[in-house]
Design goal:
Blueprint: E1 2-4, H1 12-34, H2 46-58, H3 63-84, H4 115-122, E2 136-141, E3 146-150, E4 155-158, E5 161-163, H5 167-177, E6 178-179, H6 184-192, E7 194-195, E8 198-205, E9 216-220, E10 241-244, E11 249-255, H7 257-262, H8 267-282, E12 290-295, E13 309-310, H9 317-324, E14 335-337, H10 350-372
Parallel strand pairs: 1-9, 2-6, 5-14
Antiparallel strand pairs: 2-3, 3-4, 7-13, 8-11, 8-12, 9-10, 10-11
Helix pairs in contact: 1-2, 1-3, 2-3, 6-9
Bound molecules: flavin-adenine dinucleotide.
């Protein structure tokens, strides 16, 4: 269901028109990477390319028809930014966006939460192999091995360490963490790769909230006329949709500075603003009773410091490759790197993180296989 801030619906025909063009433009964006087309730095932005190309398709339309299509396009770009992990698609490199690949198939919500996946992954590993609540504060390496130090005083000497500390933490900590410090090219690479903030707001009501048969309320904000809006809290305009995960539970996502700002607000205040949004877009004066509000705080979480990585203008997949390079002699890599920001195709995703771990495990197995034979 597509609606505007005054509760009026947006016709399916308008959305179809926009989606058809938008799909083509996004495919064109991907071509820049596949064909290695060079793009000047000032134009190296997905949003700039898509918006400019879209404008050429609107030329013959009456003003109001063009305006509503622009609003739908902006909502699509906002949804894209959430997935990309950037604040807006202006921050995502046009020349690199095609390096990311979607896995085929549909998205599923895992019953019992994502922890169930972790339970499956860890079931064959003996419990005593896990050291929980050990915050790594130092990784000292030389030709002979690695010494890992934890904040609680625990240390261990190992032949190899695989570092999966998230990029957001590495950006802040690398100088204090590594001894000797990281090579300059790795520092430059990790500084160039973007690491955004994405947060979710979960709202629970005592009764069904969206109209029967509707699972997603798409919010077509008017960013051109913000002074006439009904929702005064500007951060809320960053929410592109509310999704019903059950009849009574809605999830809204937002990214960028607004997602960061949300972390400072009281959850009750967030709930009230979301209700104002829902009332406006659903054109209702009252809603079912709100039971609970929950808001993630990925930026404040000192073990993530953000959400996931993206490639902004000026960065490239080479930076991801550089970040994934191990430290130490080529025949005896001592510190290896895994995690979503080290996978050159599936960066930003949990499957990318998993595959990067397998890649580094295979690297180590490859070292010892000839010795074992
Ligand atoms: C809102 C949101 C929605 C998402 N949706 C999807 C989705 O639908 N599909 C998808 O594929 N991906 C999604 N992701 C991305 C996915 O969660 C990440 O890509 C994935 O978790 C990355 O795994 P990782 O192992 O690289 O890092 P993490 O999962 O962040 O794991 C890093 C671990 O290192 C630990 N750590 C940090 N610092 C230290 C330290 N100093 N010492 C010891 N341990 C430390 C952390 O506690 C953490 O356990 C989403 C992410 C967010 C924020």
């Amino acid at each position: 269901m597509f609606a505007r801030e005054n509760g009026s619906p947006v016709s399916a025909k308008v959305v179809e028109d926009v989606d058809w063009i938008y799909g083509q433009l996004i495919e064109q964006c991907d071509e820049f990477f596949r064909l290695s087309l060079s793009v000047p730095y000032e134009e190296d932005s997905v949003a700039t390319y898509v918006k400019n190309a879209f404008e050429t398709k609107l030329r013959r339309l009456p003003n109001e028809d063009a305006r509503i299509r622009r609003m739908v396009l902006n909502q699509r770009l906002l949804g894209e930014a959430l997935i990309a992990g950037a604040s807006t698609m202006h921050d995502v490199s046009l020349s690199q966006v095609g390096s990311f690949e979607e896995l085929p198939g549909v998205h599923h919500i895992i019953p019992g939460g994502f922890e169930k996946v972790v339970d499956i992954l860890r079931k064959d590993i003996p419990e005593e192999k896990f050291l929980m609540n050990h915050v790594v504060s130092g990784i000292a390496y030389d030709r002979e091995g690695v010494q890992v130090t934890c904040r609680n005083g625990y240390t261990c000497q190992v032949d190899h360490a695989v570092c999966t500390i998230p990029l957001g933490c590495l950006k802040d900590l690398h100088q204090r963490l590594f001894q000797p410090s990281l090579p300059i090219e790795k520092i430059e690479a990790l500084n160039r790769i973007g690491y955004g903030v994405v947060n979710k707001v979960v709202l629970e009501f005592d009764e069904r909230i969206l109209p029967t048969g509707v699972t997603r309320l798409e919010l077509i904000w008017d960013h051109e006329r913000p002074m006439t809006h009904l929702v005064p809290q500007l951060w809320a305009r960053k929410i592109p949709y509310f999704e019903a995960i059950t009849d009574t539970v809605l999830i809204g996502w937002l990214c960028g500075e607004e997602a960061e700002m949300l972390e400072e607000l009281d959850e009750n205040e967030i709930g009230n603003t979301c209700e104002t949004v829902l009332k406006a877009f659903l054109n209702r004066s009252c809603l079912p009773k709100r039971l609970r509000v929950f808001c993630s705080k990925w930026k404040k979480n000192s073990f993530s410091k953000g959400a996931y990585c993206y490639l902004p203008p000026g960065s490239s997949v080479d930076d991801i490759n550089c970040l994934s390079e191990p430290l130490g002699p080529p025949d005896k890599p001592r510190v290896l790197f895994a995690g979503e920001a080290t996978h050159k195709v599936y960066y930003s995703s949990s499957h990318g993180a998993l595959l990067s771990g397998e890649r580094e495990a295979e690297r180590l197995i490859g070292l010892y296989e000839p010795i074992a034979q």
